[in-house]
Amino acid sequence: MRTSLILLSARLLDPATGAFLPQTALAAADGRITALGDDREIRALADASTTVIDLGGAVVTPGLVDGHVHPVSGAELTHGLDLSGCGDLDQVREALARAVRDLAPGAWLQGWGLDPNVFGERPVGIAPFDAVLDGIPALLLLFDAHSMLASRRALDIAGVDGPRTFDQATAEVVCDADGRPTGLLLEDAACELVERVAPQPTREERRDRLAAALRAMAATGLTGGHVMDANGDSLAFYAELDAAGQLPLRLRVAPWCQPGTGEDGVRALIEQQGTGGALWRTAGVKIFMDGTIDNGTAWLERPDCHGESTHAFWPDPEEYTRVVGMLHRAGVPTATHAIGDAAVRHVLDAVEKAQAGGVRGVRHRIEHIETVPDDTLRRFAGLGVVASMQPTHCCDFTRADHTDNWSRRLGEERAARAWRCRDLHDSGAVVVLGSDWPIAPYPPLGVMAGARHRRPTRDLTRAPHGPEQALTALEALRGMTVNAAYAAGEERVSGRIAVGHRADLTVLADDPLTVPATELAELPVLLTVLDGRPTHRDAAL
């Protein structure tokens, strides 16, 4: 077995203990760490084909893993006009006007990252942009990616002129009192009415965008991701990039199970488990229990201030419970999108019912968990349900004074229970961290920083939202290493720097445990290693 990679003069950080290992060098072969030791003995393992890198005292962590990410849809949805930096309606109008000036006649304008907070107290709709988008077919994706605004011209082209009925209970073509669409489309089923008539990129363009996005992720220190969809050509793209040696992240993919899937569809999902390639595989199933608080499609135990967020995503929530039971008995872990308190409670109840059948050891997860009451906290640990959290959503889409759309909808009591990372951790839950890109930026150091400071990343001088829910530096690092490995059932081969573990590594210019939270996002990533080969290398090395 030939040694493929050697790293020397390293500080090897163990996220399980928070301490540095006594060794200063490691060797890798066949994608695994094969030896740890001092520089001299590890250097002796090299031959002419070995890549030897002197790190000059840089810090090596296990490869950072995004616990919730959408690479293919992210690469597609973030193409076009970036509206994420717009803070009010005037800024959005200015951005749209600039884009319209450069638009070819008849072309569609696509935007993404629109924050509903720009509307203030006004209802979310296309009306404030009618003048600038007059005659222009446009689709503006809101930041949550569960809703979008369609211009009048886009609605006309799609033939959407009134309300519709959907299998997805929370999907809606929002209309005014006269039954005319306001431009707001809620959830995939409604959005697809207009999306399907918009111009589509070629398959090659989509694959190239994905490859570029994955390379950019590797440059931020990511070595893996728990992918929460397998839509369209996703699996084919992963297979093609993997076969060509161009897949720079190790991907664990959970295909969706939607309302109406039926028993045959569930069995097909079960049979699909474990399929994949060298660096990707299908593992688990992603299910939605609700939508989002910001657009009124979450499932809350009490309605929001607009009387919305009162329904589950599944028209019959008990059908969801039956699906979870089928998957559980087959040993298939589920990852359920549950944002509202009623949604979270129903998922926990479903897992408890599934476990009552005698099968244990299946590691189910709940994704997002944006607001939950006290009595649900300890149920996570009791049922072995992993808490998958995206703290940068709290940082960037809510405010400490609760004047944001999310907080106003919930009211003070529930807004004070925002993203309870600390409480879930302290109650014994395994907390995994992720970005939910393209909803929020994917750089993992920014995700870990947000878990610690809980401040708006655009202005770190502003007050934090719920600072009592912050994680420590070590807890945040564990959320993207050892805990991510546990959630995937891979703790014996991943998440630690140990002989026999995967040679998936992230190399940083300094110790992420001592760098201040407000500075962590800017810490240089010097090297990213996947399966024993560098996928990113800073020019300084």
TrEMBL record:
GO terms for molecular function: hydrolase activity, acting on carbon-nitrogen (but not peptide) bonds. This is Amidohydrolase. InterPro entries: Amidohydro_3 (IPR013108), Metal-dep_hydrolase_composite (IPR011059), Metal_Hydrolase (IPR032466), YtcJ-like (IPR033932). The keyword Zinc does not apply. It comes from Streptomyces cyaneogriseus subsp. noncyanogenus. CDD domains: YtcJ_like (cd01300). Coiled coil: none annotated. Residues 52-535 form the Amidohydrolase domain. Keywords: Hydrolase. Pfam families: Amidohydro_3. The keyword Metal-binding does not apply.
